Amino acid sequence: MTTEIKKPSLLGNLTVQILIAMIIGALLGIYIHNNYSEELAKEFSGYIKMLATVFIRLVQMIISPLVFTTLVVGIAKLGDIRAVGRIGGKALGWFFTASFISLLIGMFWVNLLQPGVGLNLSNVDVSTATEVTEKAQGFSAQNFIEHIIPKSIVEAMANNEILQIVIFSIFFGLAAASIGDHAKPVVRALDKTSHIILKMVNYVMKFAPLGVFGAIAAVFAIRNLDELLITYAKYFGSFLVGISSLWVFLLVIGYLFLKSRMTTLLKHIVSPLIIAFGTTSSEAVFPKLTEELERFGIKDKIVSFMLPLGYSFNLDGSMMYMTFASIFIAQAYGVHLDLGTQLTMLLVLMLTSKGIAGVPRASLVVVAATCGMFKIPIEGIALILPIDHFCDMFRSATNVLGNALATSVVGKWEDK
């Protein structure tokens, strides 16, 4: 007697659930915006956004222990400092190359399409940018270094500072590997802990459709999309051209290195991509992306080493946006930047952007700080704030694709 195996229904698929949640959230948000007063729409947005906040906080709850346990176990399994140096060298080489190319793509398209030229600045509310510009004014090389090096692992974990946790975990993992057999009980305990946390990921992901639904509904309830897109048509259209060309570049590179396996990788990461797009948070998919990359076949020690580094050093979508937004603001204010100045700006952005992924609106803070360095009015950030949420959806998804690709390629190199 044969037992028929039931296939999961289409509605039971997480990706399908998230897509449905996005559509329903957008329709509900548009309905609220069109049929209720601005005050009621804002109140509704505040309440419905709590669904997204709860989901993201659930994810943030497990990021620190997941990064620490998996990275320490991964380094201990690598065995020695030479293996860590080899993989770390490949990782950083990939990250800096990808960042430089992403910045160049942003610089190319903003110069070619010139979305900021001839922009009317009379209706810009500069006060909306106060929060970002204040953070940018406090941005310095000293703060940058202090942000990278943890003064307390407890504080770093409490604030989900991934790069700081990575640095502590690397030291801890190398020390454990150097001790040898004496450290095995600790490594085994951390290994078991990481598996428990990954099980928690499955529970948390049950809330993903609700989180995406809340995030999308909250935005559409208070934003007049038609008016926004008409006002920012040239800027948003130019940005989409730039981000699309970056996706084409990343996909071509992926197929060159991974061949037919690239298609399989895309199938594995489609849920993380959609969650990042809907919630505008690549951090929200870190645990799920870890799980999917291991299912794809990359060794856990590679995933646990590459992904935390990538989340600090390899944000391709954010990189592309930084040059695009900085030069756009310069164009809007009529500040001429020659090619040499733009290339210098590109290098400054590449260095100052590393390691600040945990800062809210990190991309905008770096853009504002860079504008200040090159005598571009930093209040110009107010120009892009109204449309930034929609740009951030594409940036976040691109960051996830870039990190998945980097981890997969380095994983393949290490297998050889």
What does this structure look like?
The chain is mainly alpha-helical. The chain is 79% helix and 0% strand. It contains 18 helices and no strands. The protein is globular. The relative contact order is 0.18. The N terminus is likely disordered.
What would you call the structural class? mainly alpha
Task: Write the element-wise H/E pattern from the N-terminal end onward.
Answer: HHHHHHHHHHHHHHHHHH
Please, how many helices? Answer: 18
Main beta sheet strand tally, sense and closure = none
Short summary of the structure?
With 416 residues, the protein is an all-alpha fold. The chain has helices spanning 14-35, 38-78, 81-113, 130-137, 141-148, 153-158, 162-179, 184-205, 208-222, 225-231, 233-258, 261-279, 286-296, 300-313, 316-332, 339-352, 362-373, 381-415. The model is unreliable at 1-8 (pLDDT under 50).
Outline the fold blueprint.
Blueprint (H helix, E strand, L loop, with lengths): L13 H22 L2 H41 L2 H33 L16 H8 L3 H8 L4 H6 L3 H18 L4 H22 L2 H15 L2 H7 L1 H26 L2 H19 L6 H11 L3 H14 L2 H17 L6 H14 L9 H12 L7 H35 L1
Which features does this protein show?
mainly alpha, 79% helix
